[in-house]
Amino acid sequence: MNTKKYRYPSVLTVAGFDGSGGAGIQADIKTISALGCYATSALTALPVQNTQGVRTIYPIPYQAVQEQIETILDDIFPDAIKIGMVHTSELVDTIVDTFARYADTPPVVFDPVMVATSGDKLIADQTITTIVERLFPIAAVITPNMDEAAILAEMPVRTLDDMYLAGEKIQKLGCRSVLLKGGHLEAPRLISLYFEAGGAVHEFSFDKFDTNNTHGSGCTLSSAIASYIALGNNLLDSVSNGQKYVHEAIFRGRDVQIGKGNGPLNHFFNPQQLTKYDLV
């Protein structure tokens, strides 16, 4: 009889809700699962939204957020953490203070969700300072898009030169590394920039194609990066592989109509079985 025990690499997502299934914690769980990791979650907010936009946002009590995180960390300690929607300063403090009570917090991927694909602003203005002061220092990488980078760097971000300058400014705010996503760049190809902790900047380029099905692409990317970290990849490879996964997921879902607005990605274009590691 085989008595050997194994474990799954796990990723904890701390994020908001999306009942339409394309973004937020639903997209995170799909992504983590599709890449062969075990998904756990803590809900930070209850946006009422669909593919056409956000109608309202209902808060989750801060004590409930704290208890959700503690319950998971006490039982299924993750190999990586993805943090998404944190829309108040109190919520930022709750998350950071909760993680601080645990030794050896795993790598954190923070997606500074400020603007939805639909253009809706999702974050309170006073929260930005708290995010920079408290969340940036604990994140291994943050993943702003061009609109979010413009808010953080306090400058217009429209060109590739703007992206280089904004990325340098954001990194000086105290985060270790920055992946600045260029999905809205007016250029023949999609270009993203990864600013490493040591000062190196890596440029990633992908083919463009026409589709409205990009709802949840930022959530998916940050979760994919966290999943690749949990699978044992270094940060640069995780950033690279995460982008390749998202680009392919968008491409494979480009001609599918789900909803009346910006549709979701095809997260399960090549689902992996749950990875099993020896239990040490």
From TrEMBL:
Residues 18-266 form the Pyridoxamine kinase/Phosphomethylpyrimidine kinase domain. Its EC number is 2.7.1.49. It comes from Parapedobacter defluvii. This is hydroxymethylpyrimidine kinase. Gene3D superfamilies: 3.40.1190.20. Keywords: Kinase, Transferase. Coiled coil: none annotated. One of its GO terms (molecular function) is kinase activity. Pathway: Cofactor biosynthesis; thiamine diphosphate biosynthesis. The keyword Kinase applies.
